[in-house]
Amino acid sequence: MAGVEEVGTGAVGVPSSGNTISTVLVVIAMQAEAMPLVQTLQLTEEDEPSVFPKAVPWKKYSGTHEGLSVHIVVPGKDFHLGVDSVGTVPVSMLTYASIVSLHPDLIINAGTAGGFQSKGAAIGDVFVATHFANHDRRIPVPVFDEYGIGTLGATPIPNLVKALALKEGKMSTGNSLDMTPEDEEIIKANDATIKDMEGAAVAYVADLFTVPLIALKAVTDIVDGSKPTVEEFLENMSTAAAALSAMVPRVLKYVSGKKIADL
Ligand code: SAH
Questions:
Q1: 155 within ligand 1 shell (Cβ under 6 A)
Q2: Which of 20, 55, 217, 263 has the most CB atoms at less than 10 Å from its CB?
Q3: Domains of the chain by residue range
């Protein structure tokens, strides 16, 4: 079905409005991933007046950088358990609310990911996602199976990738840090180099609103390696956060004064 295929592989945020990029929304799942970047960019937390409803734990850090209006948003701590609200549901609500209130010209989803060494990933690499797909939405009914995978192409940014010598790879998203044999099979079918818990959800919302999206993911753990994921994740979290807080400002500098079509 050619029509379905076309819908399934559309690129997020294309066509763009053609305006010079002025507002950038940076969506980050974990507070520890966000804080080094908040400090580097010297952003400040604004709670009055808040763009988000009072009830939610979401946080926003804003300021200007390289002539851009930059907002970092995080889903905050789970009300009941006090840990970061990782996964697809909180980040999609946060992305939705942020788009509606901040009208970004560009979204950057920055975070950490597991990487497949068989696909060229190494700890601390910062990857830019070329495609987004899901691996935990198995719906074995014609067409719904494809909806479950939900493949979307990333906004094309060939000049940026070249200028910053970024590694590129396909990303697969699911709501688990570990990987079941079923997940593994679908991740392989998705041809993924990196595996995370939010990317495809941010892409879904960005695509709904035709907002261009760049996903930058620093590798904290090697999925097809010998170390246990959780141990390796914790060991490399600060290295990855540092790599992100170095890379995101370089991306902001590059996009400043440009249009999406220039990237
Ligand atoms: N053990 C961690 C839990 C964080 S959940 C802690 O102590 O805080 C993992 C987060 O990192 C998610 O936001 C996810 O997007 C990303 N991530 C890193 N490695 C991953 C992997 N191998 N699989 C899925 N998500 C991963």
A1: no
A2: 217
A3: 23-256
- Residue 112 Cβ inside 6 Å of ligand 1? The answer reads yes
Query: Which helix (DSSP H) or strand (DSSP E) does residue 98 occupy?
Result: helix 88-102
Q: Inform me whether the pLDDT recorded for 243 exceeds 60.
A: yes
At 147, is the secondary structure helix, strand, or coil?
helix
The tens digit of pLDDT for each residue in 188-237 reads: 999 999 999 999 999 999 999 999 999 999 999 999 999 999 999 999 99
Q: Residues 149-167: pLDDT tens digits?
A: 999 999 999 999 999 999 9
Structure tokens at 162: 């070249």
Query: Choosing from 5, 33, 66, 178, which is the catalytic residue?
Result: 33
Active site residue 45: no
* Per-residue pLDDT tens digits for 176-195: 999 999 999 999 999 999 99
Cβ atoms of 259 and 31 closer than 8 Å: no
